[in-house]
Design goal:
The complex is a heterodimer. Chain A is an alpha+beta fold. Chain A folds into two domains: 37-60 and 310-336, no CATH class; 63-306, no CATH class. Chain A is 29% helix and 16% strand. Chain A has helices spanning 32-58, 76-82, 122-125, 130-133, 137-141, 164-167, 199-205, 216-219, 248-254, 316-347; strands spanning 62-66, 93-100, 104-105, 108-114, 173-179, 186-189, 262-269, 277-278, 281-288, 300-306. In chain A, the strands form three sheets. A four-stranded antiparallel beta sheet of chain A has the order 1-10-4-7. A four-stranded antiparallel beta sheet of chain A has the order 2-9-5-6. A two-stranded antiparallel ribbon of chain A has the order 3-8. The radius of gyration of chain A is 31 Å and the shape is extended. Chain A starts with 31 loop residues before the first helix and ends in a 6-residue tail after the last helix. The relative contact order of chain A is 0.23. Chain B is built from 47 helices and 35 strands. In chain B, strands 16, 17, 18, 21, 22, 23, 24, 25, 26, 27 and 28 form an eleven-stranded mixed beta sheet that branches. In chain B, strands 14-35-34-33-15-29-32-31-30 form a nine-stranded mixed beta sheet, with helices on both faces. A six-stranded antiparallel beta sheet of chain B has the order 3-2-4-13-5-11. In chain B, helix 10 crosses helix 13 (346-361). Chain B is globular, with a radius of gyration of 37 Å. At the A-B interface, helix 1, strand 4, helix 3, helix 7 and strand 7 of A face helix 15, helix 38, helix 39, helix 40 and helix 42 of B. Chain A: InterPro entries: CDC50/LEM3_fam (IPR005045).
Amino acid sequence: MTWSATARGAHQPDNTAFTQQRLPAWQPLLSASITLPLFFCAGLAFIGLGLGLYYSSNGIKELEYDYTGDPGTGNCSVCAAEGQGRAPPPNCSCAWYFSLPELFPGPVYLYYELTNFYQNNRRYGVSRDDAQLSGLPSALHNPVNECAPYQFSATGLPIAPCGAIANSLFNDSFSLWHQRRPGGPYVEVPLDRAAIAWWTDYHVKFHNPPLVNGSLALAFRGTAPPPNWHRPVYELSPDPNNTGFINQDFVVWMRTAALPTFRKLFARIRQGNYTAGLPRGAYRVNITYNYPVRVFGGHKLIIFSNISWMGGKNPFLGIAYLVVGSLCILMGFVMLVVYIRYQDQNEEEDDDE
Amino acid sequence: MWRWVRQQLGFDPPHQSDTRTIYIANRFPQNGLYTPQKFIDNRIISSKVHDLLYFLSLAIYTVWNFVPKNLFEQFRRVANFYFLIIFLVQLMIDTPTSPITSGLPLFFVITVTAIKQGYEDWLRHNSDNEVNGAPVYVVRSGGLVKTRSKNIRVGDIVRIAKDEIFPADLVLLSSDRLDGSCHVTTASLDGETNLKTHVAVPETAVLQTVANLDSLIAVIECQQPEADLYRFMGRMIITQQMEEIVRPLGPESLLLRGARLKNTKEIFGVAIYTGMETKMALNYKSKSQKRSAVEKSMNTFLIIYLIILISEAIISTILKYTWQAEEKWDEPWYNQKTEHQRNSSKILRFISDFLAFLVLYNFIIPISLYVTVEMQKFLGSFFIGWDLDLYHEESDQKAQVNTSDLNEELGQVEYVFTDKTGTLTENEMQFRECSINGMKYQEINGRLVPEGPTPDSSEGNLTYLNSLSHLNNLSHLTTSSSFRTSPENETELIKEHDLFFKAVSLCHTVQISNVHTDGIGDGPWQSNLAPSQLEYYASSPDEKALVEAAARIGIVFIGNSEETMEVKILGKLERYKLLHILEFDSDRRRMSVIVQAPSGEKLLFAKGAESSILPKCIGGEIEKTRIHVDEFALKGLRTLCIAFRQFTSKEYEEIDRRLFEARTALQQREEKLANVFQFIEKDLILLGATAVEDRLQDKVRETIEALRMAGIKVWVLTGDKHETAVSVSLSCGHFHRTMNILELINQKSDNECAEQLRQLARRITEDHVIQHGLVVDGTSLSLALREHEKLFMEVCRNCSAVLCCRMAPLQKAKVIRLIKISPEKPITLAVGDGANDVSMIQEAHVGIGIMGKEGRQAARNSDYAIARFKFLSKLLFVHGHFYYIRIATLVQYFFYKNVCFITPQFLYQFYCLFSQQTLYDSVYLTLYNICFTSLPILIYSLLEQHIDPHVLQNKPTLYRPSMQKPAQMTSLEGDIVRLDENQQNAIQINQLFTTKLKDISKNSLLSIKTFIYWTILGFTHAFIFFFGSYFLMGKDISLLGNGQMFGNWTFGTLVFTVMVITVTVKMALETHFWTWINHLVTWGSIIFYFVFSLFYGGILWPFLGSQNMYFVFIQLLSSGSAWFAIILMVVTCLFLDVVKKVFDRQLHPTSTEKAQLTETNSSIKCLDSMCCFPEGETACASIRRMLERVIGRCSPTHISRSWSASDPFYTNDRSILTLSTMDSSTY
């Protein structure tokens, strides 16, 4: 049936490819002959990638120490025993001694890890005021209701920074000492505490309120620090670029973790003699033990790790690639067998089924 | 319910009484005791949603109406109501997501639905708005006043001029003609183009001026409004000279709103039904409440998902409380509660926690499912109307979709019930033969030639007939002499002929197009009118054929005016006074007229089916005629018997009186009329019978054959007599010669019928290889249905073809209902073209109207209307198949993608102390269903063609495998030898072999099994997304090259990203037909997700409370591990699916998949499909040219899917229809 333009009736539908449902179309078929090579190729590629990923993850070194202070696990148990009660415990410090038989290649990253700490609890996660943290003066004095019960102090002053997250800021601190020669003095290893937070968080999202008479302290006048804090927010660090809301530790802490076991970056070791990593020798980590975790069954760990382009040590990705790649190849073979077998059957008469 | 609310609010007062009393021109009685009834004004208000213009123009009143009514309509739908509840819960209690996340989609869905409904309504009510404001002339206070149509009140006298449309339902008072008659056409109401005559009561017919009308004092009592266009009962009480005259009013005096005045200069009428109470408006009420099987399974799935949702919420709540029993989890020092939270009641907290979980997981019920389904149906249905293959060139009619709700049902049909006349046949009647007084005649070239057992005497007859035919040439003077010279017996014969054809040309309701008699005072019809110039209009094509045949023979009906019918017999004008017409109805199956001959004798001519005439006859050649009628019927001709009766004047007086009584009765008028008719139409003298041929439509045979091959059982339901029906059945291939035809006819008693049925059942079980056909007639059917329903159904199910003849319209519907409720619950389809098919069309799951000659009633009441029966095959095999595949995938996919969406949220609760922390950001929650994943599925569901349409049309077996029971398969193996014996058996065997290869039959794509597969797939994918991301994070290892850490929002975004990609690629895997639009939306959706996320995360949004997502997405993408993880997870998810698909295809290919293999491999490759734009897409022409230049590979030859007749695939060749090697090689 062909339709000429002259004989068109008034109601004749348009003869276009779209209205007649015959747009040109690619019609792929998921047949065995196409998927077989695909499976083999994908399988090989995945195994290759998997091997690469696995080895690159394997090349990463990690050194971790649980300093929670369970009885008999080192000198931190003293502090742990003292701080049984609720926060804040009295100042206490302890140390962790370790030695490296060989160079720990750099750059080395120092993390702390908390377990059983639910930063992803909803009530906890919403308990912050992003407007306040962005330095908005009006928000500084009027924290959002989500911050409750850390919205206003007992004296009625608005808390800055408000909310449960800020209140529970991790306040242990570490310093690393290196003993170059056995029996020699411990030299402090410089810890690079800058740029541990996301660049955008530090530069854009978090801002101190505008200075009053050039003073940050005045800008925060009329607010109270979170109840667990010993010092006001503007005294978090003597460095004016690292205090107040833009204190790097604070910014890092404010990015709540996804899972109850989480790590947060504390410092990088990449300065001075330590750019290539931590040379072999004995080390001591001085820990200011403040943060109570035993009440909720948590643990505190300190971790030294180096990092590849793909992040920290995690063999999962490599293994998963290897597994999926092998499965692909395996399925490819199964398919091949089936394909050949049924190909034969199709060629013969297959009424016997 | 809404009506009830409205009544309570006093919007529409309930009708207090069964009748309304209307004072013409609102002249109420003076005694003051009367409180006038209140009627609504003459405005048409759209029933559902109101088009914007109208809404604006009547803002104040309609705001009242519009907002609540529309909202009510929308929230009556369970899903919408559910989301409203969720929204309200979010407003009331502290929930993890803001009310916007569910409020916005709900608003979106409701807006889209409202737009769609508004558009559909707007299409329907387009003309109303014009009519509402149209100027009309109303008689008020003694003069004509020009006003707007909407101001007409009940009781107003309205003047309508020629070719104007009636603005309300009017009772005709007078016209410019003396007899008070006028002609109207109701084309816009029921599509019938013939002119209908309406008459006024004689007392008012004389009031032809405004002044005269002003003096009229009359009251009309009539029924309250009802929708039936053809029913009206009332009476007019006219007070003249202190005397009350009562006149009956029937449909013949009612002028319907929407009809048009024709051939009449002007009329006056009194408005009795106005506005929404007019019959036209009442008919706008949505007529089809049919729901498709897909919608039913969709609701089942919804309930299953609701159960999943509630159980997930309950599990979460319980776990939350088990977990929180310890204080260190419930309230650690770093996360203390407020006083308020601590003190709130435990039960209240429990409930609010449950509700919060409900809100958190509520997206598992796909909110946009309904709106997408509706859009798909609405937009998809355009393809039917656009299809050139469903366009009938001769009548310039394209297929019409009256309801888009049933598109997919077209792909599920198991039974087709078809009317015969006008559906299988052309309904173009051609007079062929007649039997007069026991002699058979044939019409050949306008001459009557006798046939039959007396060839010797044909000589004499021939001369006579020759002479008769000469009359047509107006040479009657010469021929009349031959009359006189005829022998005695021949004059006798002529007399009989005379009466026979007089009866034919008098007993009818044919109208004549009176173009020439347009002038006023057009007295008698011009007698010099040549017969060839006359044009007859009849509602029934039989009548037209008969009157035309009589005219050819020499007895020309010239017209009726002022109660006389004029017939020119052999050039001589004879006037018959028309006394009464006993109208045709389908119960009596006959019609009669009572006329007064010029000689003064009163005659009744009756015409009707032989079964309704012959038993009433007491004289004439009954037996011979009966034999002739059967012979005619065997040739497939439609027969009518003609009889007459002469009344004595005494008899007539009684008849006249009884008729008048019955016609003026207000109660049970129809019953009374039927009784009177029964009384009148008896003691008839048979004159003869006529035989009219009805040609078969084009390609009916092929279509029926294809339907049968598709596993569809075809039943022909007809009102025709047994012999005609069987012969037509045979000629159209419904029955074929190899079939064993079983008969269940002329059963008189219950027992006899049961015995016969049992016998038939035995015969079927004895010989199951041969196909059986069954013939049932109406009376036997009603017997069989009354007591032996089961047995009858058993017999029917085992017959491949069933023919029901002598069926009354309601019986047709009853048969369909029986099949519908039989245990297999098959999907039924009814095709018909006439008013008598309406009940069956409305009863069947899918009703198809043929836009034929018998008016448009069937097309109006149908779900789909097509011009020809043959289009059914494309409608079912191609469109139905496509729609089914499309909608089924759409529904399954929607549930799948929401499982994928919500299950990670559920899993995350295990890691966040069941604190209802959301995994995804609110904006992502909101946009997932609206933006990120909605378009690919919508486009898929509009464009997908998993098999080439030609293949679908030429391999009906792809539609549905046979319904044969598997038990019969084993017994059949021994009979395979018979395969080669004849093709029909081969087809049947072929169908049996395909039984296992269910593709789309019995709603299989929406079966619970398939549904569970998709759901499990969804859960599996969700587990892969979640745990893949979980293990990737491990003990929250840094994933960035600079050692910085991610947070919970990055984690959620990772899961979400993998999900969006997987779900979209999954859709891509399902897509088999990749046009450039599919490419655009599929890859476009993913790209849009990325672009949107970059944008959304790239800005600190000033109006958002939390800036959780700031730079999260960008940071995620800057991690190499994340990229590798995304690729890995997407591949893993789809790996399972691909493996399953490939194995399925290799091991148990469905016939669909096989057909895909054998398809003519079009040379279009992936890239081409993106750059090749079809001819005619002018908008894209420039891009095409550019692309062509760039890629240089698009030559027009690429677009090679032509639909020309030369295409070997297209021809409906039987050789293609038969067993194909592909299908037989399965086992």
